[in-house]
Amino acid sequence: MKQGIPRLLCLVAGIVMIVQFFIPHPISEKIFSESLRWVRIISAFALVLGVRSITVHHGTRIIRKSSGWGYSLVALVAMVVTAVIGLFGGVDPHATALLPTSIGGFSFHLQVLYANLMVPLGATMFSILAFYMASAAYRSFRARNKEATVLLVAAFIVMIGMVPIGSAIWPKLPDIAQWLLNVPSMAAKRGILFGIALGSVATSLKIILGIERGWLGGGK
Amino acid sequence: MKIGEILGKIDRRIVFGFMAIVVIVPFFFPLNVTGKVAPPSQQLFDAVEEIQPDSKPLLISIDFDPQSMPELYPMLKAILRHAFSRNVRVCMMALWVTGVGLGEAALNEVAPEYGKVHGKDYVYLGWKPGFAAVVLGMGKSIPETFPTDQYGTPLESIPMMRGVKNFRDIPYAISISAGDPGALTLWIPYVQSRFGQKLGTGMTAVSAADAYPYLQSGQLTGLLGGMKGAAEYEHLVAEAGYSEASKPATQAMDSQSMAHLAIILLIVLGNIGFILTKGRK
Amino acid sequence: MSFLLAVCFIFGIGPPEAVKACDRPNDAGKCILLSWKLSPDDAGLKSYDIVRTDAFGKDTVVGSVPSGIGSFTDESVRDNVRYTYRVVARQDSLRAESVASGIAVSRAQWFNKARVNVLVALVIFSFLVFYFIRHARAGRKLFIRRIAGLDAVEEAVGRATEMGRPILYVPGLAGISQISTIAALNILSEVAKKTAKYGTDLLVPNRDPIVYTVALEMVKEAYTEVGRPDMFKKENVFFVSDNQFAYAAAVDGMMVREKPATNFFMGMFWAESLILAETGAATGAVQIAGTDSVHQLPFFITACDHTLIGEELYAASAYLSRDPLLLGSLKGQDWGKVVILAVLVAGSILLVLSGIKGLSFLHVIYSFFNIS
């Protein structure tokens, strides 16, 4: 029963959506748009699950004084403060809201938090990639055999060819780099993509028909 | 310790420090090297160029957040400058909730440069939860999916949105995309394949490589890949005389050029170390 | 009308010709497509007005297009009503009107003929999958090649147990609707069974709230299935943040603080792939990755010990569980690829041959495979 109803729902919804894809009639469109509305509502409810999990996870860590519990405290305080400012301070800095979002000249409006915390923190995390890329490339790009050497040479050409300095070194480099991306690299990618596409269809079929039911929790 | 071992095992902190210097120095000593415009960037420029002025709007979707701002935000501004300078109307939306502020900031910065007015020349639809549901809903009806714009104005009372029912009324859509939901996971499979929408994208360099098959299959008409794509677009917009604004991506490309050369140098050093140690073994 | 014709005659503006109106195929109705041959004086024209006449003879101007355009889509029609159209060329106050089109009636269709090729492919592929599932059910042995990354799972769990350190499992950053996430969750179930057996801690940070609830349920069930429900720690499966890099920062922090002996990165990843994998490599963990995100594969291959490439990720649950039903579908996928290869070769040959004079009819067969 616990698995029977979700499997039946999955089967019906899956088949309806497949059939719908081939029917352009307004009745079919109506079913489609109605199901989309449901998906939107469910997506919004998922947020509640997330907030509950964050609270329970970090709350437990703080209560148990687990290693690094201070970080959990920061995470919880940040979540609560941001939510309170967003909910009661509003999203429009110029509109009046329940909660004041500035004291004197100091503003802590949602847009201010976003621009001064989210933006720099996010950009910092992304920029770490440049450093990690350099260290990973240095550590693992070794001409151990013929294949690795070919890979190395191709990587050099693409790396130089894809930046303006490449065309300053040799005007043909960007074209060769583009060819490497468009032909050999693309051929390999397409091969992988075919496999992925078929795998996706097969997995979808298995889920719709209840052959693959791991996602329901447990195997049986 | 032998030279081979030193070169083969440089501490990662030294690598990080070296990279930091290489990236920062060009900010103060620009190289001013202009590269060749790649065909996918030219295609995107041409597609925007083909849109009728003062007619149906260009749709731009903000599918990124502050993390990928350095690469994608200059693209957004360059595209907006291109559109506004040609009097092409812009309809903007966001699929990433953390990107809503970025779209708003870009419009607030670029629109006044060309004297463009909200509601007449551009509209910001804002964000809606549901991702696939949102774009599929737009394929059926944009006013039903976004009954009001970001600021609560009903769509039917916005002059430029009259007659814009669904994707059939969008001559070109651009997803500025940093991942999922974005061009590869939503706009190509749902919007382009299902509704035949003419589509272009701007992506982070790391994921742009994945978009090339779609460019060749014709599902994408134009692609800006990372900072390089943004710099190329800035160049095209400036060359056509549409904008004289500063070009942040072009400036940042100097750092990227140097970083690529630095990585190559590190790989070469690593390999010298590898060959020397291997020879000894 | 005669006045207009006279004006056209005097000033020499030729009207548009051959106006054709038809129901737009494969749609939900309420739409008629129009096309016409441009006026010979198109270059000097301002626009074309489209005039619709309904069954009662009432004329309505339904739209206007600039000169140079010879088509229009009328989406303001009602279904099952007979309409005719005229196109009027305009140059300031001058007009030249075409002859009326034939009758067009808009109707909603019950089948999208443009998607026949998709239907055919779906039927063939489903048949192959079901055939091999039946084949497997009958007890016939199916060969599945060795996948090193999956063979290493047992060893990796054993290593973590010996070292007394936890295992970190990242089920990708995509939502539950992505097939790669479902594949990652299936592998999680198998890994959880092993950690339950060995009594090793399993940490599962999630980016998506729905994926989190499914992951929680799966890990719990896996522990119950191997008879160790007491070992299950609910707080070890948790939601972190739906922000990509906030999630990456949190997982990096966990790697540095908890020093897991083994890291699994399975599912869909974006730019954070290398940030996660390189931090894991720095902590000395054994790392097994699997993704269908083609552009992240190089990063995982560089920084991880084993990487499942593309569909190997989907094959994992069949490989690890050895369930004949799942193995059968895997075989079906392989034959599906054979069909695709055959279509690719046939399509290439048809395209080449259709260029030869007299063989252009082959292009029709080629077009069938195109998804427009």
What is the CA-atom radius of gyration of chain A, in angstroms? 26 Å
Count of strand segments of chain B: 6
Q: Structural class of the secondary elements of chain A?
A: mainly alpha
- What is the number of beta strands of chain A? 2
Q: What percentage of residues of chain B falls in helices of 4 or more residues?
A: 40-55%
The amount of helix of chain A comes to: over 70%
Overall tally of domains of chain B: 1
Distance between the termini of chain A: 12 Å
Mean pLDDT of chain A: 86
Mean pLDDT rating of chain B: 90
CATH class call of chain B: Alpha Beta
Biggest interface, chains and residues, is: A-C, 61 and 83 residues
Your description of this structure?
Chain A: The chain crosses the membrane at residues 7-23, 35-56, 68-91, 111-138, 150-171, 191-211. The complex is a heterotrimer of chains A (220), B (281) and C (372). Chain A is mostly helical and 220 residues long. Among the domains of chain A are: 1-66; 141-220, no CATH class. Chain A is built from seven helices and two strands, in the order H-H-H-E-E-H-H-H-H. A two-stranded antiparallel ribbon of chain A has the order 1-2. In chain A, a hairpin with a 2-residue loop joins strand 1 and strand 2. In chain A, helix 5 (146-161) crosses helix 7. The longest helix of chain A is centred in the N-terminal third of the chain and has 39 residues, at 26-64. Chain B has a single domain (39-256), classed as Rossmann fold (3-Layer(aba) Sandwich), CATH 3.40.50. Chain B is 51% helix and 11% strand. Chain B has twelve helices and six strands. Chain B has helices spanning 3-8, 12-28, 39-49, 69-85, 100-110, 132-140, 142-145, 183-195, 205-208, 212-216, 226-239, 248-280; strands spanning 58-63, 90-94, 122-127, 172-177, 199-203, 223-225. Chain B has a six-stranded parallel beta sheet with strand order 3-2-1-4-5-6, with helices on both faces. The longest helix of chain B has 33 residues, at 248-280. Helix content of chain C is 45%, strand content 20%. By secondary structure, chain C is of the alpha/beta class. The relative contact order of chain C is 0.11. Chain C has a six-stranded parallel beta sheet, sandwiched between helices. Chain C folds into three domains: 2-105, Sandwich (Immunoglobulin-like), CATH 2.60.40.10; 113-131 and 326-368, no CATH class; 142-322, 3-Layer(aba) Sandwich (Rossmann fold). Chain C has helices spanning 2-11, 116-137, 148-163, 179-198, 209-225, 244-258, 272-282, 297-303, 311-321, 324-354, 362-368, and strands spanning 17-23, 32-37, 47-53, 59-66, 71-74, 82-91, 94-97, 104-105, 167-170, 202-206, 237-239, 262-266, 286-291, 306-309. Chains in contact: A-B, A-C, B-C. Chains B and C meet through loops of B and loops of C.
